[in-house]
Batch of 2 targets.
Target 1
Amino acid sequence: MPELPEVEVTRRGVAPHLEGRVVAGVTLRHSGLRWPFPQGLGELLRGQRIRTTGRRGKYLLIGFDHGTLIVHLGMSGHLRILPAGTPAEKHDHFDLIVDGQVMRMTDPRRFGAVLWHAKEDGLVDEHLLLRGLGVEPLGEAFSAGLLYRMTRRRSAPIKQVLLAGDIVVGVGNIYASESLFKAGINPRTPAHRIGLARYEKLAAAIRETLAAAIEKGGSTLRDFMAADGQPGYFQQTYFVYDRTGEPCRICGAPVRAIKQGQRSTFYCPNCQK
Ligand SMILES: [Zn+2]
């Protein structure tokens, strides 16, 4: 599943092909993804200039003067930039046609989304899908103090509090496991038992982990966006994620896996207390 770093790398990949350009049209090859495509999307966008390509959590926000196109990649979606006229394949459900190229969305499982938020409906941050989101982990609002303050009454395990996304977005299963490892915090620790000093380590670890993943993705950006390249998400080296039974890279103890709220959590019982 695309996580925040993949979405950010995607944003950086498509941005130079979109910003400042005028939409020639859209092609829809299905009635919708997770939700139906907006009615009259082609008429809404044709002839309109793309002003911005932003991101909020895992939502890409393509900004126009009259509203915002909200794109979510779901479980299996990805975007590529291709020459206009490139024949579509089975799971290519949506094209945004811009200046002789298309931004093509492929989504085999159709859990993704393409939605329209009109300017007259207010700020896009107030959209139903966006307004409950926590702060951006790489933004200025994210801090150890925020984590500390917002967890004083939360006894749930820290891993699940991170995954909930209402304090900070984008710390999905991989990055929660990795960040907790780097901070030396056991994923089962009740969030309200963690003090400010340990949250300082955790906030730094979250920022570092996500920034490193984005940088890694950036270095593979060319393949990632290539017309004929495999759009698969970039491979990374993890400390604990998906390494059950393998030796911890720091102490050599076998990495352990547990289930927390249906999701696997990976940690080192020796390095994380
Ligand atoms: Zn260890």
Target 2
Amino acid sequence: MAATAAATAPSHQPTPLLTPYKMGKFNLSHRVVLAPLTRERSYKNVPQPHAVLYYSQRTSNGGLLIAEATGVSDTAQGYPETPGIWTKEQVEAWKPIVDAVHAKGGIFFCQIWHVGRVSNTGYQPNGQAPISSTDKGISPTPRVDGLGHTEHTPPRRLRTDEIPGIINDFRLAARNAIEAGFDGVEVHGAHGYLLDQFLKDKVNDRTDQYGGSLENRCRLPLEVVEAVVDEVGADRVGIRLSPFADFSESGDSNPLQLGLYMVNALNKFNIVYCHAVEPRVGSVGGPDENLTPMRKAFNGTFIAAGGYDREDGNRAIAENRADLIAYGRLFLANPDLPKRFALNAPLNKYNRLTFYHLNSDPLVGYSDYPFLDEESNSVES
Ligand SMILES: Cc1cc2nc3c(=O)[nH]c(=O)nc-3n(C[C@H](O)[C@H](O)[C@H](O)COP(=O)(O)O)c2cc1C
């Protein structure tokens, strides 16, 4: 009888992405996470009131949101109009945004960030050189609108005696994030920015205790995590890592070894999550398997991101390759993404030209993507 019932039962399996999950002390109602998305609409590095609507649109009761990369100090910027969290004014400006997310039952982490050498003198105090693990510069990068390139100034290699100051900047930023009301912070250790510039052997050419061996290259990111954990508690700390990526000329000759070393070392801090970015290119371990060794080695919640759609995400959860999936471009263009996934509804297309502000109306391509129950209005990608 039981076998017959199972065979004839309608297939009402729960959608894996829409199942609840307990992340440390946070009870998530589903596994569809808003990935951190820089939007360049925070004038003079201060979050703006228009972010209240943008983030609250993307909030669901019990959903996890990660705020856009947010600078930890006045040397941390390398892009126009990105938010910071090192001044009182910035902390106050974040408060209504965080409150709006909480009012709808969201859990909100702030990604804390230093760009390192992905910058130029125009973003630096007193026109000084950007700082990094190295004094090697990077090539200009094409702008997203195709209008020319972003120039980077060759960086100044941080002296060993300056490293404690960097760690302290992350510590204070974490304290400020909690003061602003965030539920936690995500240390940005990915994508070729400062901490990744220490991690990766194609960038880090130091000869002190922060360069050379794998252990030495991982030292600064781990000291940052330790300081942040010490400041706000491990249950409020996550980290983002992209060992397989080589954004801004930040590749590593052995990304799997690097990723595994980091997650094993992170285990001793009991941080709440590790958020890893898929390479989605190359063939280490075959498609979708690249992050699996890190996932297996890490004791906390594992978030995967990078190129996932609904089906990929469901499969990754069902196969236990991740606990949560972070969505970037799809969530940017679909404020009600978890609901659309629940209903398997069609998605709005994202418009690459309005990812960043680029001198147009800041609300365009920001808080004007339609909800499912609004008039259908597909935006061209
Ligand atoms: C407009 C835009 C801004 C982004 N800003 C950030 C950021 O601030 N911090 C970060 O770690 N990743 C950032 N990313 C990467 C995304 O978080 C995500 O990893 C990437 O888009 C791949 O996921 P997807 O395929 O779901 O879009 C950004 C991506 C886009 C498209």
